[in-house]
Write a structure and sequence with these properties.
- Pfam families: GCHY-1.
- Its EC number is 3.5.4.16.
- Keywords: Hydrolase.
- This is GTP cyclohydrolase FolE2.
- Converts GTP to 7,8-dihydroneopterin triphosphate.
- It is a single chain.
- The chain contains seven helices and ten strands.
- The protein is α+β, with helices and mostly antiparallel strands.
- It has two domains: 21-107; 139-271, Urate Oxidase.
- Strands 1, 2, 3, 4, 5, 6, 7, 8, 9 and 10 form a ten-stranded mixed beta sheet that branches.
- Helix 2 packs antiparallel against helix 3 (84-97).
- The model has no long low-confidence stretch (mean pLDDT 89).
Length: 271
């Protein structure tokens, strides 16, 4: 037996020691792990980005601790290409490697789209925040995709009562979905942007700014309108089984934000 093997037999495994407090831990693991990934992109096949990850499992009451290094080993074994199908292979591998009944993988990353300005066609990149949550409990799996979409909203009340102009603001819509078949990130973005007064752009020339300003003025929405508009569009997609839509408008004439939420529960008809 060499020195490395000898040392290995002498090192204590504290995590596998018995714990006598008889309290099960629901989630334990690593959080805030940054990892380069590739995500499937509707236009370009894949997009390289960096994700912040949490890898978590349950811990039975009789174990003192979990083996943190094994989470990173499982992740590294699956490479960089991340999509819905291999998310489930990762959580199943976590179950097996950590001897767990339940496993979770949460990853958040910026996702970039090229957008053309509405009048001149000038191209700029806009970033969106995306969150994938995959879970396995025994053989059952669950997947939730969340996309945060910045938009412009213009106040209908301000437009109705003002002789000149109307106040507008940047809003953020957080749309989380479960679906029976894959839905592109871009599709969720399009649903949200089509529900607001105007999309957000990174590059606007003067003709574009005129177009966006007038378009928003012609399409005023309260925060309540915004979440309802998104819900109507999602209800038209039979593959979307559940959603939770939150909107927060960063008010330009108040020192608070306006907020609304609508959720479709499994089996509901959206009414």
């Amino acid at each position: 037996m060499n020195n490395q093997q000898t040392q290995g037999t002498l090192l204590a495994d504290c995590q596998n020691q018995r714990d006598h407090r008889r309290i099960r831990i629901d989630r334990v693991g690593v959080k805030g792990l940054r990892h380069p990934i590739e995500v499937r992109d509707r236009s370009f096949a894949t997009q390289s980005t960096v994700a912040t990850m949490s890898l978590l499992v349950d811990l039975p009451h009789h174990f003192k601790g979990t083996h943190m290094s094994r989470f990173v080993e499982v992740l590294n074994a699956h490479g960089r290409l991340i999509h819905v199908k291999n998310l489930f292979s990762i959580v199943h591998a976590l179950q097996k490697r950590l001897d767990a009944e339940v496993a979770h993988l949460v990853m958040e990353f910026p996702y970039f789209l090229e957008k053309e300005a509405p009048a001149t066609g000038a191209v700029g990149l806009v970033d969106y925040q995306v969150r994938f949550e995959a879970a396995a409990c025994g053989a059952q799996t669950d997947f939730v995709m969340t996309v945060v979409v910045p938009v412009t909203t213009l106040c209908p009340c301000s437009k109705a009562i003002s002789d000149r102009g109307a106040h507008n603001q940047r809003g953020y819509v957080t749309a989380a979905i479960r679906s029976g078949e894959p839905v592109w990130i871009e599709e969720v973005i399009e649903v949200v942007e089509g529900s607001a007064s105007s999309p957000i752009y990174s590059l606007l020339k003067r003709p574009d700014e005129k177009f966006v300003t007038e378009h928003a003025y012609d399409h005023p929405v309260f925060v309540e309108d915004l979440v309802r508009n998104v819900a109507v569009r999602l209800n038209e997609r039979p593959e979307i089984l559940w959603y939770r839509v939150e909107a927060e408008n960063m008010e330009s004439i108040h020192n608070h934000a306006a907020y609304a939420l609508v959720e479709k529960h499994p089996g509901a008809n959206g009414s």
